[in-house]
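Hi R.,

Here's the chain you asked about this morning:
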Amino acid sequence: MSEYILARGNGRNIPHEDKIFGISNRAKAMIAEKGADKVINATIGSLLDDNGDLVVLSSVDEVFKHLSPRDYADYAPIGGIAPFKEAVQKAAFGVHQPKGFTEAVATPGGTGSLRNVISNYSDGGDKVLTSDWHWAPYNTIAGEIGRSIATFEFFTAERKFNTESFRAKVNELLAEQESLVIIMNTPAHNPTGYSLTLEDWDNVVEVLTEASDCGKAIALVVDAAYIDFAGDEEEYRRFLPKLENLPENVISIVAYSLSKTYTLYGTRCGAMICVAKTKEIAEEFKRVCEYSSRGSWSNSAKVAQVILSRIYGDPGLLERVNEERAHYRDMLIARGRAFEEAAHEAGLETVPFDAGFFISIPCDNPDAISAKLEKQGLFIVPLAKGLRVSVASISEERCKILPAMIKAAMDEA
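And here is the predicted structure, written out as tokens:
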């Protein structure tokens, strides 16, 4: 029997249920049956407090509650309202505003940014390059518009960024294609929590500068969804000026999301911001990406654009937002460190971790181990190369007990 009745497959293998949401739904069902104290749901990609409630910045919520209907009910321009496009660049770059020409286009979250980049800077049938440990929806985003994902090995045997694997794959794909889109998720990479170091970035710039000699178009996307939960905001933006050193045929695009940074997940707001060598390239970026927006979601929701504009128009409010976020960032970092320490004590290997919402554990049979842990009331996400734990969604105390449970299940398997 065909998997499709009336719908067209178009080469896609569409599952009956999203994997991550499916696991989370089973966790919720077990909580309803046995109680929250008997279940640990470490699948959720949102920041929760120690009671399991969604963290919403009160300073941001206050702005939300004082909006007028015109602020949230009216259409926004395709590319975003002007104050938002100015504010989002300040939010993304901080004091490290790159030299060169920048343009911002509003998108529905970071996902919209990725969709538009792939649509406009690659050809049908092309492969989009990212690391072997990566956010699984990259495959869906690329596949929906007739592209696919290719990967390089993220880490060496010494647990460092694998520059040589990156170099080899960049050169291989540029030999096969007329253009190349590269997605680099950093800092606080999803799903490993790794952040590229300044030395890593020097190597990335070197590889792309050498590769650019072929004259083909290269688009480097920095998926920075977790940038403000990695650590000190300005310290983790020190890599941005390095993007200025890329040659003219390499455009850098920052995919910035308001979901995590401003706890505005449900408003689906973000922006794609280019760093280009020439005014013409930046203007082209704006034109083609706004055109793609019109042909997919049309215009993004206005409400979060107004909120960010208000925050950056009031220095006192901005300071309050930053201070409140720092409190929750410290909570998140403490959870990650607690998990790391407990993993070391349990003899559980993790993928190199720096900060962020997730930690990953390499293993050969993740689906079987995940299923075994579910029976014990521990829900984590199986990936292609291992297991993903959301330290964002569980308390520090629970972070301390998970590694031993995971290690025991792995040893039994």
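One quick note: The radius of gyration is 21 Å.

Cheers,
M.
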